[in-house]
Amino acid sequence: MKKHLIIIGFMGTGKTSVGQILSHTLDMEHLDTDVIIERDRDSSIPDIFKDYGELTFRNIETGVIEQAVQNTHPSIITTGGGIVLRSENRVCMNKFGWVFALDAQPKEIIDRLQSDTSRPLLQGGTLEDRVYQLYDKRKPFYQFADYTISTSHLSETQVADQIANIWFNLMKSGDAK
Ligand code: S3P
Description:
Elements: E1 4-9, H1 15-26, E2 30-32, H2 33-41, H3 45-52, H4 54-68, E3 76-78, H5 87-96, E4 97-103, H6 106-112, H7 127-138, E5 147-150, H8 156-172
Parallel strand pairs: 1-3, 1-4, 2-3, 4-5
The structure holds shikimate-3-phosphate.
């Protein structure tokens, strides 16, 4: 059942970029839940939040991850930072994939997201307060991952290399086929 390579993690931890690199390295299709949502709705994430609210976004997100894991061939699935909040999403990801959590220090996340305007949950108040608050609240939700990679002081390529090595070993041991 576990066949996809699924990447979770807080906003700004590099999930999508690492997924793109891995897609080349491992020659696997890359699906990104936010990209699928924006494409299906023909709307940006901030507009979906603005027009329909977070609950609707979360409902769409759940539908998208449920659909993505049905992809017949093993794929790389990258996700939005809040996908872990729903237990049904966690159960689904854990069942159909090897889950890799990317972690970074809040300070680094703040540096990376300094001029970002595309993340509705970071708007309002200071970026520092928003990140620290959300990071603390969400940290436990990432702990169901099979592997956690600390991205501090690593380039996206180095993070992708670490994941690829683990993936090769999983393949060798026959766990991911
Ligand atoms: C969200 C993270 C975003 C996007 C949406 C909500 C979150 O994705 O799904 O803005 O709740 O953490 P990234 O993690 O790719 O920024």
